[in-house]
């Protein structure tokens, strides 16, 4: 099996991810084709794209006193076929200082086909100075599937607030789901 990557594993490069889920491809894509190398790399990229889905994950921190967190936040997407496993939300595409009060952060999550998105688990490691976090909502858009789902939360992920949980399982709000042409 061949699992090519051809992507950065760095917070300050590409999409900021330091973990990648790789999909296997046919060995013909990996064998060096001396006179046609650029073309085989392009075809390899298309082959990998066909087997994976890119999600845009937007996370809204509530506008309450001490709502932001400095803890490490993670998410797991659960589909009808599989789940993504734990994905660290490291590099926001919008804000350098992520998960601050009243702000929306945007992340890219790539995964093999997990089927229709059914629920998410989001939480943090409870480490750092300000660990408590008020999560307003999570929005997950999958352009290749033509679906954008909203996961309302409106609760604390804090050992000393609400029910003390620092992880939440959230289901999509059916009325806030948008479908469009992929």
UniProtKB/TrEMBL annotation:
Domain PLAT span(s) in chain numbering: 1-23, 53-171
Domain of life: Eukaryota
Alphabetical list of InterPro entries matching this protein: Inner_ear_hair_cell_LOXHD, PLAT/LH2_dom, PLAT/LH2_dom_sf
Gene3D superfamilies linked to this entry: Catalase core domain, PLAT/LH2 domain
Cited SUPFAM superfamilies: Lipase/lipooxygenase domain (PLAT/LH2 domain)
Protein name as annotated: LOXH1 protein
Organism, scientific name: Ciconia maguari
């Amino acid at each position: 099996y061949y699992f090519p990557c051809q992507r950065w594993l760095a917070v300050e490069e590409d999409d900021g991810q330091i973990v990648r889920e790789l999909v296997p491809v046919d060995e013909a894509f990996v064998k060096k084709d001396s006179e046609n190398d650029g073309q085989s790399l392009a075809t390899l990229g298309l082959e990998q794209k066909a087997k994976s889905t890119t999600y845009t994950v937007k996370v809204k921190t509530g506008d309450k006193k001490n709502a932001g967190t400095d803890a490490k936040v993670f998410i797991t997407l659960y589909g009808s076929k599989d789940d993504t496993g734990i994905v660290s939300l490291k590099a926001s595409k919008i804000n350098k200082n992520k998960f601050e009060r009243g702000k929306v952060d945007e992340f890219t999550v790539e995964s093999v086909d997990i089927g229709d998105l059914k629920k998410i688990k989001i939480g943090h490691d409870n480490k750092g100075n300000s660990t408590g976090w008020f999560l307003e909502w999570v929005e997950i858009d999958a352009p290749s599937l033509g679906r954008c789902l909203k996961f309302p939360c409106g609760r604390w992920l804090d050992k000393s607030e609400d029910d003390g949980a620092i992880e939440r399982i959230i289901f999509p709000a059916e009325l806030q789901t948008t479908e469009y042409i992929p």
